[in-house]
Design a protein that fits this description.
Blueprint (H helix, E strand, L loop, with lengths): L3 E4 L3 H13 L3 E7 L6 H5 L2 E6 L10 H11 L3 E3 L9 H9 L3 E2 L4 H8 L1 H10 L15 H11 L3 E5 L9 E3 L2 H19 L4 E5 L5 E9 L5 E13 L2 E7 L6 H18 L3 E10 L2 E8 L6 H8 L3 H9 L16 E8 L11 E2 L3 E2 L6 E5 L6 E2 L6 E9 L2 H14 L1 E2 L6 H9 L1 H5 L6 H11 L1
Parallel strand pairs: 1-2, 1-4, 2-3, 4-5
Antiparallel strand pairs: 6-7, 6-8, 9-10, 9-12, 10-11, 11-14, 12-13, 14-19, 15-18, 16-20, 17-19
Helix pairs in contact: 4-5, 7-8, 12-13
The chain binds adenosine-5'-diphosphate.
The site of adenosine-5'-diphosphate has 19 residues, from strand 8, strand 12 and strand 13.
Amino acid sequence: MFSKILIANRGEIALRVLRACQELGIKTVAVHSTADSKAMHVRLADESVCIGPPASCDSYLNMAAILSAATITGAEAIHPGYGFLSENAEFAKSVEEHGMVFIGPTPQHIRMMGDKITAKATMKNFGVPLVPGSDGKLESLEEAYEVAKTIGYPVLIKAVAGGGGRGMKVARTAKELSEAWEMARTEARSAFNNDSVYIEKYMDRPRHIELQILGDNYGNVVHFGERDCSLQRRHQKLLEEAGSPVITEEQRHTIGKIATDALARMGYRNAGTLEFLYQDGQFCFIEMNTRLQVEHPVTEMICNIDLVHEQIRLAAGEKLGYTQKDITFSGHAIECRINAEDPITFVPSPGKVTIYHPPGGIGVRIDSALYSGYQVPPFYDSMVAKLIVHAPTRAQAIERMRRALNEFVVGGIKTVIPLHQHILEDSAFQKGDYSIHWLEQFTTRTHTS
Ligand code: ADP
């Protein structure tokens, strides 16, 4: 086992990893920008190193500064958290070249899954079902017309290098296709410096269902069931649940077997998530994330497992030590992402937190780096807390989340807590009757009513 780990991240996820390290008796090194010198992850770590000015590109994305911090403090491994360098194959490779362990998959697997066409082709090869679409990138608008005719309208043009929902355009008719083609390519060119695009069937009411998996360095792969992340705004998740209200035990078992078999054949190691769109009983793979996800706590609650402990243990070369049949599911968990944003306009709301009173009681978990007097900086992601509840049934989890949100006080800045309260009162949400397009319509409706 490692004796010292550097955590290459900030905010709640840096704290999350730090807590796991402390429980495993591992010393921690925090890194921070000048804007984060008073951050909680810096206060709680055994050591800390300032790695640059506020802008992420000069600090949390600065590979040389992070590698130097790890070298001078004698860290044996680096945990990247999510975002920043977590899916950067070059960083993972550099960590290894500096004689340290990257807590995550191999650089090859990170690279392979980072390219959406390669990811889809690889999964198809291993028998994982895909969204119908082009086999690879489209060479011309004529080819786009051909594919669209075969799969049927509406279709979605997507950027090969896509991320964060950019470079995606819907075309409902052949007439709309040429415009969508131009717009998607222009957006992809400016966002990713790469205008390659591909085409997929546009699904009109799918759910976003994803599968948490873990693999060791010896070819053993297991899954921890699904998360339903259908509540999204601008393709950003806002509320997640485990399990999904619409997935049966049999479906979980079937898709779980397909996914774990595929990843075992790839020799995938450490944590990963396969994302699917699910509609009319069919799972269609869209992408794989080769890291820990923001929403991992809902899985931890229903599986009674610490996924970060597991990541560290596996990166240190330990075996999984259990098989699929040892993994059981208990109750239902919901996570609300608390963003420092106006709940109606979604404009970011950084500033000083004057009062901070988190909820408590049975079945309530808070992952947050906030404290009273903390100044939320304007430079980073607006998510400042995750409120997670666990209860025997979904109905009880909803009740528990409602009372926890009522207790939650964050003064001085605006948050999306009122929006979550609104969602939880909606009968369609309570019935579990929603698709990935539901929240967008819900916020437009509540905004205009
Ligand atoms: P990104 O990497 O930009 O996040 P993804 O492929 O993961 O792109 O898709 C992000 C989101 O966009 C999905 O969660 C879903 O809400 C929507 N989406 C993606 N593909 C489709 C599709 N074929 N039909 C309908 N919605 C889609």
